Amino acid sequence: MDILALNCGSSSVKYQLFDWKRKEVIAKGMVERVTIGDSFIIHEVPGRETYREEYECPDHQVAIHLIIKTLSSKSHGVVADMNQISAVGHRVVHGGEKFTCSVRIDAAVLDAIKEVQHLAPLHNPPNISGIEAAQSVLPNVPHIAIFDTAFHQTMPRHAFTYPLPYEWYQKYGVRRYGFHGTSHLYVSKRASVLLGKDPKDCNIITMHIGNGVSHCAIKGGVSVDTSMGLTPLEGAVMGTRCGDIDPAIPMFIQQKENLSAKEIDSILNKKSGVLGITGQFTDRRDVIEGAENGDDRCQLSLDIEAYRLKKYIGSYFAAIGRLDAVVFTAGVGEMGWLLREKALENLEHLGIKLDKVKNKNTMTRKTENVITTADSPIKVFVIPTDEELVFTEDVVAILEGSYTDHMHFRYGFAGKDFQRK
């Protein structure tokens, strides 16, 4: 059984083909610059050289066609017949309150996803385009939706309700939803294995740090709070998104600069965060290099981001009480040793004793590592995320009729014998 996982962004489509029987990745890749011109595909197959092809993709349907063409190509493909693909798993960023777990996509589900696309205008429309495109290319296989927001549907009302007119929640669904749910799910389950505990006995803070950044407070194995809110704009400092700010600032600048609401929204989402502070970078490697070369704004950006990370650790520690572990994941979380060091500095009084040598030597997307001392009461792990594996396990379980939700379903990667390939 081969499962295709698709992650459609506004200008890209990531994919992974997984052999369920052998439990290994057959191929993975990405089509970049979809809808904006000069698009191309990067196709990776274990044991082969990476394949790249320039191919114009004016929309997601063409991008999906390109992926299928590449997967089935005689020269660099991996499947002789597309009938080998048993199902397709689709990342859907926002499911609103309608979806608490992954579901098989039918007309009603697709309509429900469309109904909440205004809550994630940068993400849900391309997700929908990807679903419709894949259904047209692969009409005879099941399509499954995996929601970023589903993992956080366990948050209590006092955590997800904003102190705003309550009618806004009732009429428009204004509340905290949270995102990166599959990533937080995966690394928290893996952390419980490393701790030698059942997930329901674990209290963990997970920190997904990439271009997008979100943190999650996990108590008893479930999400009780998370940093992103109604949209993926709230929370931590991100590559181009501002995160937490005084809500009066946008209106103040809108009046001062005579900007429209749409222009302000674009600035907060695309020109703020690390890019806004440094004026030139989103990649933290560039920021660190700039700071080392004496760039004051790069140093400021690094200090601000680390400080905000530290504050989230402290606040989530207070929210969940007893803490077993902190987990860093995603590109920056897995590779950014300096940001981790600054964020964890002087937290010994909380029970976090960082081993600076271990931390500095942990810059990998392949292995799970502990970066605290042997006598640290609270462990800090660096765990590479694997959202596509969550997609795959959900899809297979739905096909087999064994799926429930993340609180009751036993994931293969949550087992002691699981080995990351």
Structure description:
By secondary structure, the chain is α/β, with parallel strands linked by helices. It folds into two domains: 2-147, 2-Layer Sandwich (Nucleotidyltransferase, domain 5); 197-382, 2-Layer Sandwich (Nucleotidyltransferase, domain 5). The chain contains 15 helices and 14 strands. It has helices spanning 60-71, 107-115, 124-137, 157-160, 166-172, 181-195, 248-257, 261-270, 273-278, 284-292, 296-320, 330-335, 337-344, 356-361, 387-400; strands at residues 2-8, 12-19, 24-32, 40-44, 51-54, 85-92, 103-104, 143-147, 203-209, 213-219, 222-226, 325-329, 369-370, 379-382. An eight-stranded mixed beta sheet has the order 5-4-3-2-1-6-8-7, sandwiched between helices. A six-stranded mixed beta sheet has the order 11-10-9-12-14-13, sandwiched between helices. β13 and β14 form a beta hairpin. The longest helix is centred in the last third of the chain and has 25 residues, at 296-320. It is globular, with a radius of gyration of 21 Å. The mean pLDDT is 91.
Q: How many β-strand runs?
A: 14
Low-confidence stretches: none
CATH H-level superfamily of the largest domain: ATPase, nucleotide binding domain
Q: How would you describe the shape? A: globular
Give the spatial strand order of the biggest sheet.
Answer: 5-4-3-2-1-6-8-7
Structural class: alpha/beta
Main sheet summary:
8 strands, mixed
Helix-strand pattern: EEEEEHEEHHEHHHEEEHHHHHEHHHEEH
Question: Span between N and C termini?
Answer: 18 Å
CATH class of the largest domain: Alpha Beta
CATH topology of the largest domain: Nucleotidyltransferase, domain 5
